[in-house]
Each structure stands twice: as structure tokens, then as C-alpha cells.
Design brief:
The protein has helices at 5-12, 39-46, 52-55, 142-165, and strands at residues 17-23, 26-35, 59-68, 71-78, 85-94, 99-107, 111-122, 125-135. It is an alpha+beta fold and 168 residues long.
Amino acid sequence: MELDPALRRRLEAGEVVVSHVSVDAHQRAQAIALIEAPVAHAWRVITDYDHYKDFMPYTRESEVLERKRNVVRFRTVLEFPLRDIWYTIRLRLDAKAHHADWTLVHGSIKANEGSWDLKRYAAARTLARYTIAFDPGFYVPKGLLRKATEGSLPRLLDAVRKRVAAPP
């Protein structure tokens, strides 16, 4: 991923940079951040699905239902102010490329698809990119959904940063 100098400065200052793109009826958001750890360690944290409940924001339950080679079926329950949501997603993992992408299998929401991409930034630093297209299945004004995303994505990346920095 090419980074322009302005974006590089923001990332190196510790910012989680969030951007939005409308795709069909779904709002797609992207968050980019630097993680102070080698790629392999960051990858272990973001693929530790059974323990998301221990460190990911809003996550009340997290459980791997099935793991077959590079495919994982994962169920989670998230706590939100209006109501809790649950869903099962199917993840495809490419450990060599440090890439994971997912699609919704079923749940109390209409759509959830996204990806994680991790790239070496420096010897012990990782450039992380998280993308999500999410539709709760009920009306939420676009401005409110956008504001919620701008608050939740930095919290998510910060949670990964804290987990990576925690002692084993």
C-alpha cells in the first residue's frame, strides 16, 4: 500500500485514519493504523477469534464454530446502545499474505463483509488496514452510522494495539 507523505505523518503520530466510501446501498469504511509489533505477532492477535470477547470493543461473546485449514466460521454477539446484535461470519485466511476477509453467513444484521490486511512497515512495526461494509438491517440515518463508525473503528484498532502490547 502506497502512503502519501501526509498520511504517513498522521499514522506515525499514532492516528487511526478512517475513510468512507459508498458502495451500492452499503457504506464501506476503512481504518488504517500502525501497530508497534512485527506483522506475525499482530496477525496472531487479529486471528485469535475465540478471545475477541477479552479485548475487542463491544464484544460480549466470541466463538469459533468451525476451523478447516484456511476457513473459519465465527459467531459473535456485540453490545450496542439500541440493541445487541449477533452474527456468524465465514472468514478466509491467508496467513502468508497476512490477509483475512469475511462475509456474513447469518445473523440479526443484514450485511457484514470486510477484511484485515497487515504489511510490514518497519522492523517491528505493522501497517494494518481494516475494511468493513455493514448494514444493521434497520434504519439508521447515514450521518449517525458514519459518526458511529468514526468512533468505533479507532477503538477497534486501539484494542488490537493494546492486546499486541500486553505481556503474553
